[in-house]
Amino acid sequence: MADPNQAGPPHYGFSIRPRTSPSPRNPRISTHSSDADEIDRMLAKYGHKIWGFVIYRSTYASDSDWTECLRTFQSELKFDLEFLGGLDILDSNPFTIFEDRNLFDGASAAVVRDHFNAWALAAPEREQGTGAGGWGGSPRYNFCVQIDERCLRSILDGNHGGAQSEGFIKLIRGSWQSDPRADRLRASDPVQNLPAYDDIEGCTAYDIGWAKIRQEKYLAFFCALQNQNFWQSSYKRPPLVSSTDAI
To answer: Disordered: where is this region (predicted)?
Structure first.
């Protein structure tokens, strides 16, 4: 029991260290834990002016639902940045959206990936003035987000009037490539000892090139995916939800 006459707070076998390297935006958290500070470091590292995943709209059933989905999405991002004291970087995320009913209505992840990769070849120079070799590991040009009807419904139905939504989005890896030969072996030759999973968009491998993530984790994933190993360490095959717990 602590001595009531003892000066200062009692000790319980450990010491409480002052927070090191506090965030200049919010001194209650470490700068190394602040996604807003990480965005600043990322922009400086790559010589960029803007950040954020580009978003593909793959559902066109209701324009009003789409508008509400985006409002919820942007409100969540603003809420996260406000907590971090990082509203100053909100304007540097242009919230780039690709909308084309003929191209993307009900599109597979493969269709979205092909368009995204073609766009990403010239986008760094056009957007950032850095040239194709300047973006390095920036997640903006390596990953994109797809919102289909199921994603949209999850975002709208998961928003219960609070700041956070329980909705999910698809995160697509641009560099992923399918392996049709391995898929055929899984299906026809169990002796090969290649584990087979349920067919998703023609793929029976564990990693199908896209992940299901919580919409509220948009910012955390953008920062974490600078690490080239993060995809493998965080990935869970849909319908499971990948998370940033691996950080």
So the answer is: 1-34
pTM, full prediction: 0.84
- For residue 215, the cross-strand partners are none
CA distance 180 to 173: 18
Strand ranges for the chain from DSSP E: 55-57, 97-98, 143-147, 168-173, 210-214, 241-242
What is the per-residue burial (b if ≥16 Cβ within 10 Å, else e) of 80-89? bbebbbbeeb
Domain ranges of the chain: 31-174+209-242, 179-207
Task: Compute the Cα dihedral for 157, 159, 165, 169 and give only its sign.
Answer: positive
pLDDT at 246: 55
| C-alpha distances in Å from residue 236, one per residue of 2, 163, 210, 242 | 47, 26, 9, 5
How far is CA 168 from each of CA 20, 69, 139, 191, 209, rounded to the nearest angstrom? 34, 11, 19, 37, 16
Length of the chain: 247
Contact by Cβ (8 Å): 49, 43 = yes
Q: Rounded to whole angstroms, how far apart are CA atoms 195 and 132?
A: 38
Sign of the alpha-carbon torsion through 23, 29, 31, 35: negative
Residue pair 124/54 in contact (Cβ under 8 Å)? The answer is no
What is the mean pLDDT, run by run of 10 residues, along the chain of 247 residues? 44 44 93 95 92 98 97 94 96 97 98 97 90 67 97 86 72 88 56 72 92 96 92 94 79
Q: Where are the alpha helices (DSSP H) in 90-215?
A: 101-104, 109-123, 149-157, 180-188
Per the DSSP assignment, residues forming a β-bridge with 173 are 143
Residue with tokens 């002796």: 191
